[in-house]
Amino acid sequence: RKRVLSGIQPSGKLTLGNYIGAMKNYVALQEEAECFYMIVDLHAITVAQEPAALREQTESVAALFVAAGVDPKQASIFVQSHVPAHAELGWMMTTLSYMGELERMTQFKDKSEGKDAVGAGLFVYPSLMAADILLYKADLVPVGDDQKQHLELTRDLAGRFNHRFGDTLVVPEPFIPKVGARIMSLDDASKKMSKSSPNAGSFIALLDSPDDIRKKISRAKTDLGREVVYDPREKPEISNLLSIYSNCSGESIAEIQARYEGQGYGAFKKDLAERVVETLEPLQRKYAEIRASGAIHDILRDGAERANAVAEQTLREAKEAMGFLLPR
Ligand code: AQP
Fold it and tell me: Where does motif 'KMSKS' region map (predicted)?
């Protein structure tokens, strides 16, 4: 069986972008592969987090995984800081990373732009992400398009490690959805939809109420003209809304385009809002049930146990290969 690893930061309210770009594939992969899905709190603190909010969001993201259809019996759901091997191999990967390659990461450039105090954690984020993946010897990593560059670095680091210390780590492949790999912001289609955006109108949170969803979509920016056509270069805003529609309804972009021919943006947006509401309603219902049941702690304990078993083994192999004296 192939092994799959992916993670999401508890750094805000999960968005429709996280769902379409990553979580939908979590569910699709769990039957055929051995899956590890984690809530990456060590990554979240690369940007300042309020402690109470971090704790609440960590639990909330875990419950959202289950609500979205991840089955904790089939897949291991766990919190990154519950598996100490991440921090350890993360440090080892940091020592193998070059400043130059980390400086080229667009996420670092975006998140540090215009700030005068930039945390070092933000800079070495990709080294920790490499450790996350390599600990599980993952074959596949389901992520949105924005993580492609980090995954490329993970592949380079695994190759570098194996070259210097002998074959130890598995070089992973990205698993990126065809439509919706990059859901854009509702107020600016040149930026990805992001949970840490200061403008709540720019994203749809998975737990937004139906009315909020309707409001946000009706206010979403549109391009000049009135034709609903998919053309990311000339009509980036409408194209983004079309790919959200297609992901929620399961129809092809061509089918949707044909339906709204000659109808203008208004009718399209109104229906799109309903498609999003219909997609999120069952998830929200299940989320409320899980939170009320208190089952999440057992799920996370179980997940961490399975994750630790695999991660500790790889860490031991990596330490041995690098020349660490293992305790006897
Ligand atoms: N807009 C998006 N479209 C498609 N996929 C997306 N992902 C994130 N945004 C989109 C995918 O979701 C997974 C989890 O991402 P993350 O929590 O590690 O953080 P991120 O990629 O940095 O996402 P955010 O929402 O923008 O978080 P913040 O604002 O906290 O940095 C990844 O697989 C990602 O590809």
Answer: 192-196
